[in-house]
């Protein structure tokens, strides 16, 4: 009977899609729980209800109500979905979040600089493995195709995402595309994005708590019928509703500091895939020519 019950469980992706579809209708407290689950998929199966409630700023009963909202008798039944996904795949190695927590629990007190560096590198490596495993090839290919046919490419990313936005603009400028960084220098986000039009693509990079400036630029792009590529961390991100195509990336975190390793890697891969496509087009139309890498 236990095996039949396990097989009847939805997949994590199916569950998260249901949550995303119903997110806007959820009460505020249940939205907090939904966001926590989306951002902590690989640890939800071992998290205690009280710990989740404390992280979300809600009563433990709200966590149970959340599970019941999506057809589970209690939160442990919802956790079974994640246990099936993360322990039923034959992988005995703990997630990178669990490794970090284990290190902190086992080695309290001051750590050397080298220990901090190695733990941060380990977290980044784990996140890269998660990025590779979870990459949506169809969405990625759609993003490349969209950029390939764009008349202009606008890139927006603020605060922690600004270095990534700056990098992808630098990289894309090695292609024949017209690329614009929406930097907001002088507070001029509105002025820099107002020329976006149908046929253009806006790349928006943002992670929780999601930049208001980035959301504004996406709304403008949507209003002017430009296509949008959103790079974010969750299906529940407010940016997702304006996305033509979206790519998800979860960064490794150590000592309450999130890496940018996976996001930079994803953007580099996006540029290389686009440059490859553009160069193929050049070769198909002429024997020589192209652009420098």
From TrEMBL:
The keyword Transcription applies. The keyword Transmembrane does not apply. Pfam families: HTH_6, SIS. Keywords: DNA-binding, Glycolysis, Transcription, Transcription regulation. Residues 13-89 form the HTH rpiR-type domain. It comes from the Bacteria. Residues 143-285 form the SIS domain. This is HTH-type transcriptional regulator MurR. It comes from Paraburkholderia metrosideri. The gene is murR_2.
